[in-house]
Specification:
heterodimer, A: about 270 residues, mainly alpha, 2 domains, B: about 425 residues, alpha+beta, five-stranded antiparallel β-sheet, about 40% strand, elongated
Chain lengths: ~270, ~425
């Protein structure tokens, strides 16, 4: 089963790469039909990615969410899922062109990690693992999409009026609302992640909050997005300032995910 | 009076909240980047003497318990509390107003559709409840419906949740009692100064075939030595499965190796005790002579460049790393194999019967439930704020019998407008313009 997962993972990487190229082509040749193919390809990639995760879970005999490789591939899955939902829901294929490279980078990072299946240490053998990590995947995916939307928001002013992109990108007001929707999804799931993590930590380590670097940076991320939400409704700070904070929030997400594991060892060092 | 009002307004303002959040995020970042709980010497070696002095002067060595960090959190609580107090009457008024047609029954609103023959069908498409009949400001027939008024309370509930969370955490930190007890099966350990003792009845390390640990399980009994007859309660604890006994929570925290240390004096048995790795034994008739068990290696190997290590978790080649102190001075340090003896003058020391010991963490925090409720209330607030969008719609009949339908959404913006336009298009059975 793990061999099947390995093959599927490679196919998924190729599909995500092809989808990314198609999105770029859509912008280059300005043909909507290409965007539709790219969206379909991304959907097919997501379906196969789901199958790969299921195979990994069956092969490992547990939820495939316990090490850097498993979390990275699940993160890419979450990013692809949320971006696809937003692309379809808001008829916004340009978003796909910006989110596909991020997805490809994340799955590329996963490919560089060890795929070895290891048995779980006692602290990880808990029913809370599934809740805690799966909510984190959705949160990170939604924050990834909000990052992409904020980049588009910040670039939008520099785009030529009446150009192809100008017509295919929602106006500033709508873009801001879509970004807000994405951040709100992410923040809700990040709150779930922090609460389920705290409940689990209380059972496993005897303390629901111990200022471990991972916990602290999750809180920093939460605070940065809380600032974003307040800025959005504060007169004079809407739009650009809020978008900059959404970008900063995703930098915090990436630091929480990769930076903390690399530079700040703690009780989450296995994650 | 004006000054007090100004201070009140400033402390309860959103600008102050944003400033506090920025400072709090920065404080947390610094606290996580500076290694916590180290000494001046440690920081001086890691950074420089100047930086070490600065770290200690600013309390960055224990950032999350420092006065300035607590002050930031206290100001944030005050801001949240005042914000909620100030907004409460306004919120109640707004919630009441959102459910009443007054003030809405004129041709206004965020979005509007004219010439609608069947407004009820449009209300239905907008997922509004059944509209109530009323009269418009100009006396015309009107319909009104609203939904999701609870969404107005999202931010307020979220603030309340954060306040409860911080309160529960703070009270827990101030009042909680924490103890540890370690030992091997058969040991009886006091739990701090509580008057309770914990007996370690059994301890097992469940290993898989590949030598990795599956679970640590301890059977414990706690005795209340304060009460007559020392009543007891027993439980089995393992990682992720703590037990509550006499109001205290017992966690299987960690484990290590212990060994039986036998001391002979001139060949005659003098002393025997089980010593955990990291602990020591003072010789009975010469307490200034101390044997310290630094570490235990079940399958000892000496790795060049690394030092003593263990090849597997199995007891294939046990070795004991020890050090001997006399009057606080280190006499020597070495590794002793299973059947080897250590001779110090007239004393002979041997290590044997290696076994796992358990480290049990004991905690009593009476406010965990408050923090949990705070977390859940915060979550509820976020759901209300993000996914319960207060909306209202009303229709006014014109002289021609057709209706003008208006609608408002507090948070929907252009997306609500799209939804409204789609609903109108579908109703008119014509493509969306």
């Amino acid at each position: 089963m793990l061999q099947v997962e390995n093959t599927l993972f490679t196919i998924v990487m190729l599909i995500y790469f092809a989808a990314m190229i198609l999105y770029f082509t859509f912008i280059a040749v300005k043909r909507d039909a290409i965007a539709k193919i790219a969206v379909c390809l991304q959907g097919a990639g997501l379906a196969l990615h789901t199958a790969a995760l299921v195979c990994r879970g069956i092969g490992a005999g547990r939820l495939p969410l316990t090490n850097q490789y498993e979390f990275a591939t699940a993160f890419a899955w979450g990013l692809c899922l949320v971006s696809l939902i937003f692309v379809v829901r808001f008829k916004f294929p340009v978003l796909g062109a910006f989110s596909a490279p991020v997805t490809f980078l994340v799955i590329g990072y996963a490919a560089m990690q060890s795929k070895e299946v290891r048995e779980l240490m006692p602290a990880l053998r808990s029913g809370w693992l599934g809740f805690h990590v799966s909510t984190a995947i959705i949160a990170y995916g939604a924050f990834g999409v909000s990052f992409v939307l904020s980049i588009i928001f910040l670039l939008r002013d520099r785009m030529k009026a009446q150009g192809f992109l100008d017509q295919h990108i929602p106006n500033r007001e709508k873009l801001d609302v879509i970004s807000y929707r994405s951040v709100s999804l992410g923040l809700l799931f990040l709150t779930f992640t922090i609460i389920t993590g705290a409940i689990w930590a209380e059972r496993a380590w005897g303390s629901y909050w111990s200022w471990d670097p991972k916990e602290t940076w999750s809180l920093v991320t939460w605070i940065v997005y809380a600032i974003y939400l307040h800025l959005r409704i504060r007169r004079g700070w809407q739009g650009r300032a809020a978008a900059i904070f959404a970008v900063a929030g995703f930098v915090c997400v990436m630091f929480t995910y990769i930076g903390v594991n690399t530079f700040l060892p703690g009780v989450h060092s296995y994650a | 009076m004006n000054t007090i009002k100004k201070i009140w307004r400033f402390i309860s303002s959103m600008g102050f909240a944003i400033a506090l959040l920025v400072v709090l995020a920065a404080a947390c970042s610094v606290g996580s980047l500076v290694t916590q709980g180290q000494s001046y010497a440690w920081y001086a070696q890691r950074y420089s003497e100047r930086t070490a002095a600065l770290i200690l002067a600013l309390g960055l060595d224990d950032a999350f318990h420092s006065g300035w960090f607590i002050a930031i959190t206290a100001f944030l609580c005050l801001n949240l509390l005042l914000c909620n107090v100030v907004r409460l009457p306004q919120l109640i008024r707004r919630t009441r107003a959102a459910g009443r047609p007054e003030g809405a029954l004129r041709l206004s609103g965020d979005v509007r559709a004219e010439g609608i023959a069947n407004p009820q069908a449009l209300f239905e498409r907008l997922r509004m409840p059944k509209p109530a009949a009323c009269a418009a400001e100009d006396g015309s027939a009107a319909l009104f419906a609203s939904r999701n008024r609870a969404g107005l309370w999202g931010a307020w509930v979220c603030h309340l949740g954060i306040l409860l969370l911080i309160l529960g955490f703070g009270l827990g930190q101030m009042t909680q009692r924490q103890y540890t007890a370690y030992g091997v099966p058969g040991d009886l350990r006091p739990i701090g100064d509580t008057g309770y003792v914990v007996s370690i009845d059994d301890f097992n390390v469940g290993l898989r075939e590949d030598d990795t640990v599956e679970q640590y399980t301890a059977d414990i009994t706690v005795y209340d030595m304060n009460a007559d007859g020392a009543p007891s309660q027993s439980a089995t604890i393992s990682v992720n499965n703590p037990a509550t006994l006499f109001g205290m929570k017992f966690y299987q925290n960690s484990t290590g190796w212990a060994a039986k240390v036998t001391v002979l004096k001139d060949g005659e048995p003098l002393q025997e005790a089980v010593v955990c790795a990291g602990d020591y034994l003072a010789v009975a008739d010469k307490p200034e002579l101390v044997v310290y068990l630094n570490a235990f290696y079940p399958d000892y190997v000496l790795v060049p460049g690394v030092g003593p290590s263990t090849a597997t978790g199995q007891l294939n080649n046990p070795a004991y790393l020890y050090s001997v102190y006399f009057q606080g001075q280190l006499l020597g340090m070495n590794a002793l194999m299973q059947d080897e003896e250590l001779t110090i003058d007239e004393y002979t020391v041997t290590f044997s019967e290696p076994q796992s010991y358990t480290l049990i963490q004991i905690k009593a925090d009476r406010f965990t439930w408050l923090a949990l409720i705070g977390g859940l209330v915060t979550l509820l607030g976020l759901v209300l704020a993000f996914y319960v969008q207060p909306e209202r719609a009303w229709a006014i009949q014109g002289p021609d019998g057709l209706w003008t339908v208006c609608a408002q959404s507090r948070k929907g913006g252009p997306i609500f407008k799209d939804r409204f336009d789609r609903a109108v298009s579908a109703l008119n059975d014509r493509p969306n313009p």
